[in-house]
Specification:
about 15% strand; seven-stranded mixed sheet; Rossmann fold; alpha/beta; about 375 residues
Length: about 375
């Protein structure tokens, strides 16, 4: 990435960059421009967001190992650039739906750190309890439990259908991993989205290993951005937050201008395993992981860009790092202090108010709960 000078305007003072020539590969569409421009505030916001997200996942790792988080826990460490770059290209009217590794997207869509960590801990302050703030995000496989691998993709197509039906100039970004890319419902969603020219952006987060199988062993075609067939696609360097933002802005413009759906493949990498129960080293080498951390880390990469462009100083970045750590650590204490939900809460918010039934059956045939 080359850095150009500040704009002459003392008001805007945008910083201009030229992305690496291999940031994008296109299929049946033009590549986005490699020339991008950002304000100092946006650049710092991207850096801070990724640092907070990384720290939040590190804390989640510790809480899981302390047996405070139970069940499954899927961390997005290493993949922060996808959620951060995407959000910078969207507005509150746009929608995001995903499944595994959703903590970062939830944070970027407006969920508080406390509410996310409390949700993982199963506490009352958790975001599913409705106290995490207004969100424009759907997480069917995690914060709500709805479906199996890839099930969020046709739901995303449905949300995009609603946007078009209501005449909204907004897009839905439906995310899934390379491990879900062979699901039949994904291709069914492609078909409907193209038939009706829905404002749907299908985003494959290709972190190479699915649940633990290398992509070339699970997929006959690993060029995921070409698998929409009749839907144009774009492969993106998902470890570069600026490339991600540019690609998502391009995708939003494409879909909301009436051109129909678009498929994005974010080439990214998770540093940990599929979940906390997966060490992540049985199907790849430690050397490979270390190489990716050393040469492709999204936070380190943006840090170098900011320093070379004289956007911030090393000391200012250290202060951001320190503040992010303190913010997440404080949120973790608040989440742990939150009480567990009352048993009665398990039987609420099942139906929309006014549409419920007088009784809801429990886990056993003779168990009923009255409203």
């Amino acid at each position: 990435m080359s850095v150009r000078t500040f704009a002459s305007s003392s008001v805007a003072r945008d910083v201009n960059f030229t992305l690496h020539k291999e940031s994008f590969s296109a299929y049946n569409c033009d590549e986005p421009s490699l020339n991008v421009s950002y304000s100092k505030d946006d650049l710092i916001k991207m850096y801070k967001s990724m640092v907070v997200m990384r720290r939040m996942e590190m804390v989640s790792d510790g809480l899981y190992k302390a047996k405070l988080i139970r069940g499954f826990c899927h961390l997005c460490t290493g993949q922060e650039a996808v959620a951060v770059g995407m959000e910078l290209a969207l507005t509150a009217e746009d929608k995001v739906i995903t499944a595994y590794r959703c903590h970062g997207f939830t944070y970027m869509r407006g969920g508080s750190i406390t509410s996310i960590l409390a949700e993982l801990l199963g506490r009352k302050a958790g975001i599913s309890g409705g106290k995490g703030g207004s969100m424009h995000m759907f997480t069917p496989n995690f914060f709500g439990g709805n479906g199996i691998v890839g099930a969020q993709v046709p739901l995303g197509a449905g949300i995009a259908f609603a946007q078009k039906y209501l005449g909204q100039k907004a897009a839905t970004f439906a995310l899934y991993g390379d491990g879900a890319s062979n699901q039949g419902q994904v291709f069914e969603a492609y078909n409907m989205a193209k038939l009706w020219d829905l404002p749907a952006v299908f985003v494959c987060e290709n972190n190479r290993y699915g649940m633990g199988t290398p992509a070339n062993r699970s997929s006959a075609n690993t060029q995921y951005f070409k698998r929409g067939d009749y839907i144009p696609g774009l492969r993106v360097n998902g470890m570069d937050v600026l490339a991600v933002q540019q690609a998502c802005a391009y995708a939003k413009e494409w879909t909301t201008s009436g051109k129909g759906p678009l498929l994005l493949e974010m080439e990214t990498y998770r540093y940990g395993g599929h979940s906390m129960s997966d060490p992540g080293t049985t199907y790849r080498t430690r050397e490979e992981i270390q190489h990716m951390r050393s040469n492709n880390d999204p936070i380190t990469g943006l840090k170098q860009v900011l320093l070379e462009a004289n956007v911030v100083t090393e000391d200012e970045l250290k202060a951001i790092d320190k503040a992010a750590r303190a913010e997440v650590d404080q949120a973790a204490e608040e989440a742990k202090a939150s009480p567990e939900p009352d048993m009665g809460d398990f039987w609420t918010q099942v139906y929309q108010k006014g549409t419920g039934v007088p009784q809801l059956r429990g886990r056993e045939p003779e168990e009923f709960h009255n409203y």
